[in-house]
Design a protein that fits this description.
The protein has about 260 residues and is an all-beta fold. The protein is about 0% helix and about 50% strand. The strands form six sheets. Strands 2-1-24-23 form a four-stranded antiparallel β-sheet, with no helix packed on it. It has a four-stranded antiparallel β-sheet with strand order 3-4-5-6, with no helix packed on it.
C-alpha cells in the first residue's frame, strides 16, 4: 500500500510525521494549524491538526474529495478544488459553518487555488482557453482575469505583500507581478512544482528533482541565486508540496513512498 506522510522541516531537522493525506496548508492565525485531507477516513474529511500532531477538528466533507486547498488570511475560510459537480472547479468553505460555495463554473478544469495574503483575490489555474494558464479572481468568483499566456502553468503562489505570483511552467520557475506583467524566469529544472514564499518574501521553497533524480525540497532567493537542497530522501521515497509556516521557522512537506515499479 502506498504510504504518505506530512513532515515539518526546521531547516534540516524533521519534527513531525503523520500518515496518509493529499495536500497540506497552514492557517494564518495566532496558532500554527495544518490542514490536510485524510485517506484513513472513508469520507475523506478535511482535518485540522496542530504542529504537535494532535487533531483539532474534522470539517464537513465534500463529495468530490477536496484537494489543493488554501487558507484565507483570516483563517475563517478554505478555498479548494473539487469534482463535486463532476468537473474540477474552485470552491470555498466557511470553517465555522462548514458551508461550501462554488466559485468557478467553466466546463474545463479549474485548479490550484491560492488565496492572496491581503485577502482580495484567489489565483488559480484554468484550462478554459485550451491550455493551463494562471487567472486571478475576487474571492466571490467575480472580476476574473487571465494573467498568463503560456503552456502548462501550475500552482500559483503569492508573495507576502500580494504583489507577485510565482508559478511553474514547462520546467521553469517564473515570477510575475499581480497584473501578469514583469514576467521573469527564476530557475530551470526538471519537475518544478509546489512553490511557497518565505514570510519575508526573500526566498521561495519548491519541489524539484535533485542531481541523482530523487524528488527533493529546495529553496532559492527571489534573485535566482543561492539555490539550496533542504531534504535528502531515501530510495523509494518521494517529497512534494513544501509549505512555509507563517513564522518562517518551518517548512511542511509531503514524504511518500513510490509504488513498486513506479516512478518518482
Amino acid at each position: 500500500m502506498k504510504r504518505t506522510r506530512i513532515y515539518i522541516l526546521l531547516w534540516m531537522a524533521l519534527l513531525l510525521s503523520i500518515s496518509l493525506f493529499v495536500n497540506s496548508g497552514w492557517a494564518e492565525t495566532e496558532w500554527d494549524v495544518i490542514s490536510f485531507v485524510s485517506k484513513n477516513d472513508k469520507d475523506s474529511p478535511i482535518i485540522l491538526m496542530n504542529t504537535g500532531g494532535a487533531t483539532l477538528e474534522k470539517l464537513a466533507t465534500d463529495p468530490g474529495v477536496p484537494s489543493q486547498f488554501t487558507w484565507s488570511p483570516s483563517g475563517r475560510s478554505i478555498a479548494y478544488e473539487s469534482r463535486h459537480g463532476g468537473n474540477l472547479d474552485i470552491y470555498v468553505m466557511d470553517v465555522g459553518t462548514n458551508e461550501h460555495r462554488q466559485l468557478t463554473f467553466d466546463g474545463n478544469k479549474d485548479r490550484f487555488p491560492a488565496w492572496s495574503p491581503n485577502g482580495k483575490w484567489i489565483a488559480f489555474v484554468s484550462e478554459r482557453t485550451g491550455s493551463a494558464n494562471i487567472y486571478r479572481m475576487d474571492t466571490n468568483g467575480e472580476n476574473m482575469k487571465q494573467l498568463t499566456k503560456q503552456e502548462g502553468c501550475r500552482r500559483p503562489a503569492w508573495s507576502p505583500d500580494s504583489q507577485w505570483i510565482a508559478f511553474s511552467a514547462e520546467h521553469t520557475l517564473f515570477v510575475m507581478d499581480v497584473r501578469g506583467r514583469q514576467l521573469r524566469e527564476l530557475a530551470w529544472a526538471t519537475r518544478f512544482t509546489n512553490c511557497s514564499w518565505s514570510p519575508d518574501g526573500k526566498q521561495i521553497a519548491f519541489r524539484s528533482n535533485a542531481a541523482n533524480g530523487s524528488s527533493e525540497v529546495f529553496s532559492i532567493d527571489i534573485s535566482g541565486k543561492n539555490r539550496r537542497q533542504l531534504t535528502q530522501s531515501n530510495r523509494g521515497e518521494n517529497t512534494s508540496d513544501p509549505v512555509w509556516s507563517p513564522s518562517g521557522k518551518w517548512i511542511a512537506y509531503i514524504l511518500g513512498q513510490v509504488p513498486a515499479g513506479g516512478h518518482r
